[in-house]
User: Which sequence fits this backbone?
């Protein structure tokens, strides 16, 4: 017998409401949660997410794309800005985006700022080297100039930032 | 068969009408409405992902330098890979985009997902409350399979694997429908298109032949013969005429045992006896679909068991999800075995058997190296087969209260585990979008490491535009935080 000479007459399947609900509910709930999340975010309400409020927060979170966007929109990487305690640490409340990038240990961000000419001032450069040395971020120290780090007073730059 | 009694009667004309009513019902509409919700959720994160730098921007540079015909013709003469229509598809979208690359390429990715979900629902033919009740689980498996993630977290700038998912699911839809002359034509066109897009496109032939062998007559015998000639012709063209060859051991890293091995290690291990490595890859790929272990040839979960190391939460979720789903599938195969012995097949049987054929063939195609996404066609048919098997289980469940309660708990655990995996895919796409933006932010540094700085004015203009798209015009969403992420990251 082959499939070409038979047909099947089905009887309706038995239905267990409990089984149907148990199978469908978790997956449907997950889809609904995703859609609720999308609805919240689309309306501007961020849930389960930290949205940087300024370029310093973006750099402090190590977000290269968002940092670059804010720089292109005209935000000043050298301006001291307030950062929330959860961005870097509860003791760091006011930093520049450049300092925040060092706190975030992001040498790529420092390179990007450098390419944009934000670290042209030698005094600023030395300030960042000293901060990187205080935080023991060796790749940033090397990139900005290890020679300058030798002239830093250990811990002083970080302490000054914390005291702001 | 969904459930209940099967009665046989002689009916020579019944060939294509075996199965369930074609008529739509309110449940059908409910199924498509739910599918749309699923697509909306995924579309949100897909449209947040910029065109990537590596394999995205770098591939697009070439698209602007050759005409469609020149490019497609030139791709016939590449070494190791025969994928001329992949280049052709990218060129068509690139040309249609006319500068609006983000919108067209990212939009096309969303359209692909929409088409896949529509095909999935069409293949399930939801007509009753039970059909619709298992659909959310089916779609969660479709999206939550680890083989699926690679089809959405990246694009080159079109995701080739997703294209093949559409081709194989489309082939099943054509094959399982009623006989029509246009289905023969569509089958031939689909096969040529898929086979010349990427090697896994050959699975389209497997789908058509498996469907035909199980009694599906959407495509005629003549078309099946022609497809088989074309299938053989592909190998003659590739190895005899064009001498394209195939990738060797030295092409890429691949998992073996408890870790990934680089090409040099693979040559040292298997250089004299590559068939042992190829066999390992085939078996690993097949097991990966059924149990989510090994992953890309690496037995991570097993290693943790051996070393008494704690599983990560996603590992536990994967294990529960795959064990329950494959368990339901094995039960279903066992229940169907008597009908199969007398070659009695209807639509649900065919879906399960097409899955089996695609699983083996997909595994065989992955002989060279293992990678989750390479098994994505088998992953789609796994989702279809498990959905069919779950529907059957619900329909045949004994009425005893205790059994129903235990089954309900197992179904809820399976559905919840796959739901977590499906949500994890959204998180993975979002994180991939963030990673791509970082690539664009640090583009100069990346190009330096690749020693690949563009000097051509058109390439530079494209680079600037895509960077602006990624950074300024379509800024990313913020990173997700919270302990709950430990359930979702690293799926």
Assistant:
């Amino acid at each position: 017998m082959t499939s070409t000479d038979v047909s099947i007459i089905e009887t309706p399947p038995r239905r267990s409401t409990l089984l149907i609900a148990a199978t469908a509910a978790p997956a449907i709930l997950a889809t609904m949660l995703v859609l609720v999340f999308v609805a919240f975010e689309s309306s501007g309400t961020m849930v389960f997410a930290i949205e940087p409020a300024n370029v310093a927060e973006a750099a402090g979170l190590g977000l290269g794309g968002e940092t670059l966007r804010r720089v292109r929109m005209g935000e000043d990487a050298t301006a001291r800005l307030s950062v929330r305690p959860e961005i870097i640490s509860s003791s760091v409340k006011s930093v520049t985006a450049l300092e925040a990038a060092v706190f975030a240990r992001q040498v790529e961000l420092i390179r990007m700022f450098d390419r944009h000419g934000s670290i042209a001032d030698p005094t600023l450069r030395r300030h960042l080297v000293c901060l990187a040395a205080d935080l023991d971020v060796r790749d940033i120290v090397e990139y900005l100039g290890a020679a300058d780090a030798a002239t830093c007073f250990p811990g002083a730059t970080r302490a000054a930032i914390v005291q702001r | 068969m969904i459930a209940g009694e099967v009665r046989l009667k002689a009916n020579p004309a019944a060939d294509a009408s075996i199965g369930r009513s074609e008529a739509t019902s309110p449940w059908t509409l409910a199924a498509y409405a739910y599918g749309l919700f699923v697509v909306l959720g995924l579309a949100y994160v897909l449209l947040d992902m910029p065109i990537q730098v590596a394999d995205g921007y770098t591939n697009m540079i070439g698209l602007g330098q050759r005409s469609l015909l020149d490019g497609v013709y030139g791709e016939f003469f590449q070494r190791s890979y025969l994928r001329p229509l992949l280049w052709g598809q990218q060129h068509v979208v690139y040309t249609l985009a006319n500068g609006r690359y983000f919108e067209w390429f990212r939009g096309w990715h969303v359209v692909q997902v929409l088409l896949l979900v529509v095909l999935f629902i069409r293949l399930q033919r939801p007509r009753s409350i039970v059909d619709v009740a298992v659909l959310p689980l089916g779609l969660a498996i479709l999206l939550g399979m680890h083989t699926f993630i690679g089809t959405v977290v990246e694009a080159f700038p079109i995701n080739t694997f997703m294209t093949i998912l559409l081709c194989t699911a489309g082939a099943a839809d054509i094959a399982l429908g009623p006989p029509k002359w246009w289905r023969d034509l569509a089958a031939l066109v689909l096969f040529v298109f898929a086979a010349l897009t990427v090697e896994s496109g050959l699975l389209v032939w497997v789908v058509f032949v498996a469907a035909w062998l199980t009694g599906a007559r959407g495509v005629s015998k003549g078309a099946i013969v022609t497809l088989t000639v074309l299938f053989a012709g592909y190998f003659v063209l590739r190895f005899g005429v064009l001498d394209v060859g195939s990738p060797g051991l030295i092409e890429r890293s691949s998992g073996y045992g408890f870790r990934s091995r680089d090409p040099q290690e693979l040559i040292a291990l298997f250089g004299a006896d590559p068939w042992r490595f190829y066999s390992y890859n085939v078996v690993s790929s097949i097991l990966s679909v059924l149990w989510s272990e090994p992953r890309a040839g690496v037995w991570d979960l097993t290693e943790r068991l051996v070393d008494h190391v704690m599983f990560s939460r996603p590992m536990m979720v994967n294990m529960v999800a795959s064990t329950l789903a494959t368990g339901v599938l094995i039960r279903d195969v066992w229940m169907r075995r008597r009908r199969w012995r007398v070659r009695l097949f209807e639509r649900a049987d065919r879906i399960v058997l097409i899955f089996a054929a695609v699983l083996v063939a997909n595994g065989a195609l992955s002989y060279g190296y293992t990678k989750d996404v390479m098994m994505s066609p088998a992953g789609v048919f796994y989702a279809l087969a498990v959905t069919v098997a779950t529907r059957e289980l619900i329909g045949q469940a004994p009425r005893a209260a205790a059994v129903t309660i235990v089954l309900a708990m197992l179904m809820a655990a399976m559905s919840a585990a796959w739901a977590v995996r499906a949500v994890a895919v959204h998180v993975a796409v979002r994180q991939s979008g963030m990673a791509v933006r970082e690539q664009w932010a640090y583009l100069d540094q990346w190009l330096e490491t690749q020693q690949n700085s563009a000097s051509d004015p058109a390439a530079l203009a494209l680079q600037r535009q895509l960077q602006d798209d990624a950074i300024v015009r379509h800024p990313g969403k913020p990173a997700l935080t919270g302990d709950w992420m430990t359930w979702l990251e690293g799926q």
